[in-house]
């Protein structure tokens, strides 16, 4: 992990964005706009989603009105669409790692604020469905409480003012580009957590770009470190995925000594999108052979820059034949690291072998060993 890296800044407060950073609201926006645009005889194009990120409601509405040539004003669109959103707030899920960060900072007495372009009322509604959140924030600044929303720094400066701290001792956590710009313009340290994949190269002004909240290392900012890592692994709520083994990319990973028994992602798009890309481990059950330790990567394999998010489990056992078509069930119990790019194939292979060692050892811990007996591994 981040050993040996220099400490960046002395931070005393954390200011968090809400939509797309703590809450998985992006899916809701797409869902609502899709239904809404049908009324106007238009079809929602998912590729538009990135344009909404981090905008004030009015700016986002203006973009939709213009892009789709709607016969209404942005204000009218907002009035019409708000009831549709209100029905969805209770269905929003926290993003992976959101509850963990909030709890961790709270327990350690680190002051937190929420800074969102959304109107006060919708912020309150959204967080009212998340137990323990409202009480955790010493200040909440909304888009309607400042003259200009992000990318203007105003919202973050107002948050610092209400917390009675210097901007330079605040750490902002943001998923959107306008949010990152706002945080930097406010003179704060900014960690970007892009909510769309393969976007990290756009976030050059951020002080650090991480893949998901799970990868935040508070100690880099002189904040108390997470204590929940166990022997280089992070226990997660177990999740389950299975199906017949299919042909992968045929990259000859067997030649590299790292065969991965690919699973079809069909039918798992929701589960997959819920889990950040990265290296995970757990147990694998092969219907006719047995149960094995397993280490896997989920994601786009930056080294190969795949277009699809794939699941690549390496069973930690030597088989003397292939098992294409056989039913493979996985229980994923822990996380090791984010996916990375590597300067050479050798260094990628070396890292994967390191992952293997970590997984092999960890799976013998009482914490993880029990999942070996999970019924799911034996069913097909
Ligand atoms: P592909 O591109 O088709 O996934 P690989 O070179 O990654 O090809 O090889 C994967 C195949 O190798 C699996 O589908 C499986 O049939 C076989 N295999 C043999 N040993 C293992 C192992 N230890 N872990 C995963 N797959 C293995
Ligand atoms: N590919 C990457 O590009 N970056 C990674 O960090 C990475 N980590 C992996 C970790 C494990 C445990 C495994 C099994 C694979 C990983 N891969 C990674 C994927 C690897 O590139 C891929 O499985 C093979 O190329 C086969 O397609
Ligand atoms: Mg494979």
UniProtKB/TrEMBL annotation:
Pathway stated in the Swiss-Prot or TrEMBL entry: Cofactor biosynthesis; FMN biosynthesis; FMN from riboflavin (ATP route): step 1/1
Q: Which UniProt keywords apply?
A: ATP-binding, Flavoprotein, FMN, Kinase, Nucleotide-binding, Transferase
Top-level division of the source organism's lineage = Eukaryota
The UniProt record lists the keyword Amino-acid biosynthesis: no
The Riboflavin kinase domain covers 234-364
Q: Which GO terms describe its biological process?
A: FMN biosynthetic process; riboflavin biosynthetic process
Fetch the InterPro entries from UniProt: HAD-like_sf, HAD-SF_hydro_IA, HAD_sf, PGP-like_dom2, Riboflavin_kinase, Riboflavin_kinase_bac/euk, Riboflavin_kinase_dom_sf
Question: What top-tier enzyme class does this entry carry?
Answer: transferase
Q: What GO molecular function annotations does the UniProt record carry, in alphabetical order? A: ATP binding; riboflavin kinase activity
Keyword Nucleotide-binding present in the record's keywords: the answer is: yes
Q: What is its EC number?
A: 2.7.1.26
Q: What name goes with this protein?
A: riboflavin kinase
Origin organism of this chain? Nelumbo nucifera
């Amino acid at each position: 992990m981040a050993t040996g890296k220099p400490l960046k800044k002395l931070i005393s407060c954390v200011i968090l964005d809400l939509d797309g950073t703590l809450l998985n609201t992006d899916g809701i926006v797409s869902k609502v706009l899709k239904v809404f645009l049908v009324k106007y005889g238009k079809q929602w194009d998912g590729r538009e989603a990135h344009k909404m990120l981090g905008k004030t409601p009015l700016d986002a509405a203006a973009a939709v009105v213009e892009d789709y040539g709607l016969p209404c004003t942005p204000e009218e669109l907002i009035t019409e669409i708000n009831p549709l959103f209100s029905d969805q707030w209770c269905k929003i899920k926290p993003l992976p790692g959101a509850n963990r960060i909030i709890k961790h900072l709270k327990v350690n007495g680190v002051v937190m604020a929420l800074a969102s372009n959304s109107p006060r009322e919708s912020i309150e509604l959204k967080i009212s469905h998340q137990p323990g959140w409202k009480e955790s924030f010493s200040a909440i600044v909304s888009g309607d409480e400042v003259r200009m929303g992000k990318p203007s720094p105003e919202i973050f400066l107002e948050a610092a003012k209400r917390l009675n701290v210097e901007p330079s001792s605040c750490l902002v956590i943001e998923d959107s580009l306008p949010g990152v710009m706002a945080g930097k313009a406010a003179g704060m340290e900014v960690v970007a957590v892009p909510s769309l994949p393969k976007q990290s190269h756009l976030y050059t002004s951020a002080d650090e770009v991480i893949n998901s909240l799970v990868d935040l290392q508070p100690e880099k900012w002189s904040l108390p470190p997470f204590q929940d890592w166990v022997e280089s692994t992070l226990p997660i709520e177990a999740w389950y995925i299975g199906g017949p083994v299919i042909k992968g990319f045929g990259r000859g990973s067997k030649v590299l000594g790292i065969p991965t028994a690919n699973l079809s992602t069909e039918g798992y798009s929701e589960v997959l999108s819920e889990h950040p890309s990265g290296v995970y481990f757990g147990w694998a059950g092969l219907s006719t052979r047995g149960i094995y330790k397993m280490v896997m990567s989920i994601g786009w394999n930056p080294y190969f820059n795949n277009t699809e998010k794939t699941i690549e489990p390496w069973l930690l056992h030597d088989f003397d034949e292939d098992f294409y078509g056989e039913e493979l069930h996985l229980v994923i119990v822990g996380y090791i690291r984010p996916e990375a790019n590597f300067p050479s194939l050798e260094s990628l292979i070396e890292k994967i072998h390191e992952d293997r060692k970590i997984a092999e050892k960890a799976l013998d811990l009482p914490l993880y060993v029990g999942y070996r007996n999970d019924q799911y591994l034996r069913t097909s």
